[in-house]
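Q: What does the predicted 3D structure of Starvation-inducible DNA-binding protein look like?
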Amino acid sequence: MNAKEISLEEGKVKPVVDHLNDLLANYHIYYQKVRGCHWNIKGQNFFTLHLKFEELYTAALTTIDELAERILTLGKSPYSTFHDYIEKSAIKEIQTIGLKDTKMVKAVIEDLAVLISKEREILDITAEAGDDGSNDMVNRFMQFNEKNTWMLRSFVNED
Ligand SMILES: [Fe+2]
């Protein structure tokens, strides 16, 4: 299967796939970080943040699967090893054991900024390639991340 079978130009799809794969790697590292926050959260915000982190990593899991399957739909292979994820991701792992609750939230806000910036770049690339399917999908991810940035920033009381 190649991009031609869904009426897209093979050459134009290459940068889309490369960027979707890069985003996939970033989401994997982000996913595990948020999962670590969910496990290791302590203190009076436990019940609020334990639940919020679960909502975020559950959404990330769906996003990861959608990204990988979009790459396959475009006729290419998604990165599938942690070796690749760690090597390619701009988002880096952190130790969440013993991390203060507000520091966890700030770490997640920072990662969301990276994801949003990458997603905004992909919107341009997919528009250029005429790939409305990827464009629409990534736009949804970005809007979810934007909204959660607002909520998490409100939680830590930052403008
Ligand atoms: Fe859990």
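A (community wiki): The structure tokens above were generated from the sequence. Residues 38, 54 surround fe (ii) ion (CB under 6 Å). The chain has five helices and no strands.
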